[in-house]
Structure prediction request, 401 residues.
Amino acid sequence: MKKLLLSLSVFLLVLCAARAEGLNPLDEMKLDAQPETASAEHPLALKGLDFGEGASILRFKAVTESELTIRVYVDRLEGSPAATALFRPMMKENRRNVELTGTHDLYLVLEGSGTLTSLQAFRSVQDIEAAVRAELGGHVENAIPARYLQNCEHGGTVERLSYQAHDYAADGALYEKAAYVYLPAGYDPQNTYDLLILCHGIGGSEAEWGLPSKSSRVKQIMDNLIDRGEIRPFIVVTPNGRAGKAEDYSPYYLFDQELREDLLPAVQAAYAVDTSDRNRCAMAGLSMGGMQTINLGLGKCLDRFSAFGAFSAAPTSNAAAVTAAVLNAHPDLPVRVFYSICGTGDSIALASANAAVQGLDALTGQLNEDNCFVQLVPGVHDFNVWYLGFYNFARIIGSPD
Prediction:
């Protein structure tokens, strides 16, 4: 209790000084509150906090060895908490956001085993994004530097792969399909490379990501990242995500069957990859391909992939609770990377992309700030966002560290 009172005394002094100087008093608060001193009978009380006229976002972190629930009450302890955060062992540090406007008293109640380590407040979403980018250690950028969008002297090659697939939307009959394959410069069939399956959007095809083009952005990005030694060389395959000939949308939702039975075996047979090693296989996609990555890659093929990138995930993408249930059911299949990006002006996918990630890290112990990256950027439903998503995802999954 003495430790807590000392922390609060220091906080109040900082608060008064900050107000006198016209500063944001919550820019950085660090507390060490033990659970027994922050119970319902003796909550951690932070009184008279001025959150300003515009909505500020309170962001706090905690550490736990088992499970810790933090309940945040605004102005009084009676009634329901304004926010509840659950921290699990794998999530040594985490964040929860509470939007507040005006002056309020906060009461924090800790239940379980763990420690609240810090509190911060931000005046805007942009401030939060800047803080997150700093914490990600440069993994995520808001723009692709021009040097990665030009042809590279030591470039890789692009091939067309033909393979037999079943019509999963009809009678299962075999028919011929095609995919484009990026092979890094110096490709050696005696080596084994990581693999990325990169999916297109609705109405697109295996060519939508532009690999057949001489000015392919995907190829330029890969060539330059590899040539500069910023990522390990890996293979990129852009398939046709329709698992059948039907003209409606149903073939998109059956693509997991083609992945397992047709595409991955065909890639394994033709190129130096090991599709039996999920830690060397990733899946990503734009719009409808983002939905396929979440619903089918993570949702149904978690045993085949460990890294997932959803770029403007389309409507019908699984909500966070559905994805969390899958992850919680398979603790033996840890996620290496989960990355999501969407444009803030995207009238098509912003709602579904947000629903797919909102609170996801709180619902499962599989994801934390070390392997879960959520990015919102200015933009709409177009390739400006999707190429940026590919650039960031390639840097994350291909990191030589």
Summary: The first strand starts at residue 44 and ends at 50. Confidence is low (pLDDT under 50) at residues 1-28.
